[in-house]
Amino acid sequence: MSNNQHKQCQLCQREMESLTVHHLVPQQNTKRKKQDPGPTANICSACHRQIHVL
Length: 54
Known about the structure:
Elements: E1 7-8, E2 15-16, E3 20-23, E4 40-43, H1 45-53
Antiparallel strand pairs: 1-2, 3-4
């Protein structure tokens, strides 16, 4: 796999094959009818797990 297929985690800056989308505002705090999910960050799965543990 070439480097141009990797994406950079917005939290740890590591180059990863795939990233997950993390909602910066918890979805339960947003209106269900609202179509805009609010601000998000593209982060690696390790960072995403760590955020939810904390």
